[in-house]
Amino acid sequence: MSDLPKTSGASDVADVNAKGADDAVFFGHPRGLAYIVFTEAWERFSFYGMQALLILYMATYLFLPENSGNVAAFEPFRSLFEAVFGPLSIQALASQVFGAYVGLVYFAPVLGGLIGDRLLGRTKAVLAGALFMAVGHFLMAFEASFLLALAALILGSGLLKGNLAAQVGGLYKKSDQRRDSGYSIYVFSINVGAFIAPLICGTLGEVYGWHYGFGAAGIGMLIGLAVYLSGRNYLPLDTVVESKDRPKLEKGDGVVILAILVMLGLTSLYWTAQSQVWNAYPLWLRSDVDRTVFGMEVPVTWFQSLDSLAVLLLAPLVLWYWRHQSR
Fold it and tell me: Do residues 138 and 218 make contact, with C-beta atoms less than 8 angstroms apart?
């Protein structure tokens, strides 16, 4: 997980948490990390819980002719995609919509980070993002508001993800060697939420009804919001960057920016393929895999937990290795 650009004075903002023992109360890290970590775990629970169901919901229910008429503005929306890709089957349309949604979700933090740094401040941006995401999850419970729900989730994810990760870096001074392991704990929390979400939200959605799964995702986001609000006193200070205070590009920065863009291009190829875990993979599992184990049919969404399970099993080894290096 990369650290986003800091606001002015952010390199020393760790002092806001340096209150004696408070500087090392959460596995040797600042107390604020605990609130960020648990907020992120619940946010990822809500995000991946909804995402585990999304392609199945669209391809096997919502986009069917007998149901698509319930979605507000569905025909103009479908026409927009078919103007680009040509005539699409129900499954193809669902996959294209899912791809557009995920692409926008992962691009939105670029804009959300700018809003947090230059307009609202990171804490307010995270709070606004959490509210938008909660509203989006609950709107998913109603067929008519499906497109509005996706828009709210994209906006909310951009504001939250674009600023919450940066607040992790704001807990430490640049010279603090705990920073890398702090981000490892943060990423670990992402995978905890991503592992649990398909098992709970996915089961509720597949077995008991789509809207139960989406509702559970919304509740998870509200819990995350409550955790974040309870820890506001331990978060990095918010400092909005004024135009006159923004650092200017210096000689050699162009090469660095170019290198970052190249890396973004390369990693986007990986993430395009990896994201099929939530797109083509569930559809293939549903139609072509015998999921019966000891007489019970395993829900499709459970398989999406395997991706995060591998990270959870290996992350403690990485953390141990980094502590060993530090010593």
Answer: yes
